[in-house]
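Appendix B, Record 12. Input sequence as logged:
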Amino acid sequence: MKQLVGVVAIVFSVLMLANTSYAFDWDKEQHEFSVKLGMVLESEVYIDPPDRYFDTDAGTMLAIRADAVVSPKLSVGGFFHQITNSTGAGDDITTNAIGGTMKYRANLTPDLQLRPGVSLGYNFLITSDAFRNDATGLEIGAFLEAAYHLRDGHMLNGEIGFVTQPAGGNSDIDMTYGPTWYLLVGYAFGK
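Logged structural output:
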């Protein structure tokens, strides 16, 4: 938790201290590409059989997104993200996901935009457990992204959100998990 507070404080400080010489016209932006890196918090994964919950440790997350601005207040896009963490039993889990997003774009200042959004994706879960096959599943998420314009279409991005897998597994097991919270920071550029 201390790491999360520290990362949020750093992102907030950078956003407040960054200086721009002119206001960016968000309404003329047509598309955006972003790369973000951050952390996921501890969570639980339900596996049946054996009909029990397994704790997962905090881990890392990499997110790559491409968005098209369809109106001044709305964008849609695609994403790939990878979450790497481990269970309390020592199994490493890598979750690769692809899917789509939809974001509302609210201008707070000429250089700061907030973007609440939702995501829908398909997970590919890979585990180090040799006795368990890899699994797939439906991913649903929600997030709040902040974009701070640095210069000529270049932005600093911060994001907090969660992902969940309400349905999934393989031919041997059902695998689901509730909200897994994450925090990301990164860089974006758009035109």
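Residues 2-190 form a domain with the Porin fold (CATH 2.40.160.20).
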